[in-house]
Structure formats: C-alpha cells, structure tokens
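Bug #77: duplicate submission created two jobs. Keeping one. Sequence:
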Amino acid sequence: MRLHLRQNGNKSTSFLLAKVKEITGGDSLESNIQLVYNNAMLVAQLAVELSKLNK
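Kept job's structure:
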C-alpha cells in the first residue's frame, strides 16, 4: 500500500493516526490514547524537575 502524503505538521499526525486506525479496524486507538497519556505524564514530570532547577 502506498500513501501519498500531502499534509504537513499536525495535519500529518492526525491523518496518519486516522489511517492507522482505519487499517487496524480501530485496534490501534487504545494504544494511541495510552501513548498520549504517557507523553503527558513524562512532560509533567519533566516540568516539575525543571522548576526545581529554577529555585
């Protein structure tokens, strides 16, 4: 399968996630949600540690 990507930036990410969801019949959705959650937790932890450096 060949995809022609004519999107860029956030549009590419949204397009690709939607395409993967379509191809997997929705099986990828839970993984993608968990990935976003884990990234948010990591960024929050990083922000806490960085704020400690600025004190």
